[in-house]
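Form P-L/3: holo structure prediction, ligand NDP.
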Amino acid sequence: MSRFAFITGATSGIGLASARALAGKGYDLVIAARNGEKLEQVKKDIEKEKKVKVTTYELDVRRPEEIHRVAEDCLKNVGTPYILLNDAGLARGLEPYGETAEEDILQMVDTNIKGLFLVTRAFLPAMLEKNEGQIINLGSTAGLYAYAGAAVYCATKAAVKTFSDGIRIDVIDSDIKVTTIQPGIVETPFSEVRFHGDKKRARAVYEGIDALQAEDIANVIAFVADQPKRVQISDVVIMANQQATGFMVSKKKK
Ligand code: NDP
Ligand code: 8X3
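OUTPUT (holo model):
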């Protein structure tokens, strides 16, 4: 396989759009998420559209043993990723912290923090050995500005930002680059996941806003990936024109 990107969460939203964008730049792909059927559909579509090779792994990043199995298999049979795009993540609920379900707290921490940390730990030694590559992590404006009902989600995304800053220091003597992408509100299935499948409540988040689309973020990720060796983009914050900080948006009346 030629240069490839390993992408968690490539079956939906920003991860899927980024998979397409990076394939458009000629990268082969290794894509990982929990839903095997969706992975196979994405593989079929992208291989047909973009003429690159796509390898799939069913992976729940909350399970360290699965991360070890997938990383070992990938390193042995596919190779060392040039790009590691840690996209898999989610919010669950939008209630005051005292009312937040314990299982939602654990799912956000286990996915957004522990999963991302361990996937990175599994690939970084091989990337350092090759002395090339880019780690691109999905943070969020939520990690910069807390908002009501999202203390845990915001904290997980703040962790992604400081984790990225920390590993950038640890790899300073190598040619590896580390980037945190911090989007504001992007119209994807994210809100449907947050509201446990409540489509109407999810739709309302984006009503009255010309919201960012997954492709907008994917274009930025492809731009970050495309820079010359000397250029490391450490952070990118991207918001819709109608968003100012965290959850502060100006909604157009119907
Ligand atoms: P989506 O819900 O559309 O996509 C989430 C992806 O993550 C899916 O492919 C899902 O696949 C995968 N995923 C979720 N849990 C796991 C898990 N435990 N193991 C492996 N894969 C998992 O959301 P978005 O595309 O909107 O979000 C992608 C990232 O961008 C997240 O980290 C999110 O926090 C961040 N973000 C999103 C913003 C937004 O407004 N949409 C803004 C800022 C950041 P499957 O269910 O099959 O596992
Ligand atoms: C997702 C963006 O503003 O809904 O990270 O938290 S927001």
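COMMENT: The domain at 4-238 is CATH 3.40.50.720 (Rossmann fold).
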